[in-house]
User: Fold S4 RNA-binding domain-containing protein from Mycena indigotica.
Amino acid sequence: MRDKGVFAIRKALPRMVLFPSCTHQDLTPRQSWHPKNLFNLHERTAGSRVGEIDFKRSEKKLFQQRWISKSVVRAYHGDLIGEKIFKSWYLPESLPDVRPRRKVFGDDGAELTAFARRSRRAEREKEREEEEKELARGLAPIGSLMFGEVERRLDVLIFRCCFAPSIYEARRLVIHGNVLLNGRKHSNANTRLAPGDMFSVRPSAIKFLQPQKKSDESDNITERLKAPVGSTPFNLPFFASPWLFIPAYLEVSFLTCSAIYVRHPTARPQYSEIPTPYDADGEVVRAAWEWYMQNRSRKRTEKQWSRMPDDRLHPQMQERRLGSNSIRFAIAQATRNELR
Assistant:
């Protein structure tokens, strides 16, 4: 069984799933609202298992540190994606540079100052002060941006919008035809969205928007209150509040159960937009990135490109690639004509 032991207590790894069969062997945080997942998250971040991923005073070798880091990080980010597929299609070639761009001023400062007078000088001083403040805040934690491609997946975005209590539930919604992508039914949960894409979930398919089964006696005071006629029931699972947040790159409308993927995740000093239970630029994420830099797919043939998961951004990138190639070809052709 694929999800057997997914909430096991021994390894404490947070996961994405909600109600799989559980054993007490794998204490790993996942992307899920399950109470056991919250316990696993506590054990890994503030509980008794923190020392297992603290390598400052560890006797483990560098290979062991990278292997453990890769295991715990991948257990939360896309554990349903096979390792080979992740390394081939979801791992970026390099981490983006999100540092503030320092403006280079030329040697003609005196002439420009004389031309623009004092107003231009005041603007430059203000820009320099802003750059110094930005640098004083420190560098942006870009380590977690290695999972930017995973965050673009349709099932992950549905989970991030709090439309599903687990990643597998979000995947079920997509496969069963309960999700619309840009107004059309879409059943491929592996699709990676492009900025500006809108997706919506059928409210009748969301489990916690369905009425609960009536019981003879209930201790929940909210069930005793008389709900207004025609209102949509809302039965939030217990211990779900720590997971109820919306990333900055999503614009969500809970009235229509729809959301827009506004832009790709990014990072700024002391803040990363990709949610992760570990330090966004800590030693665990860095060690995991070092592991993948040494163990990744190097080449992609035409046959491999044909097996790539659905990516709505790929046609745009292909057009840019073809455009750049045509420009290079035109420049080379013009150079040859001049030499002749």
The first strand starts at residue 179 and ends at 181. Confidence is low (pLDDT under 50) at residues 18-24. Strands lie at 179-181, 184-185, 198-201, 250-253, 258-261, 267-268, 271-272.
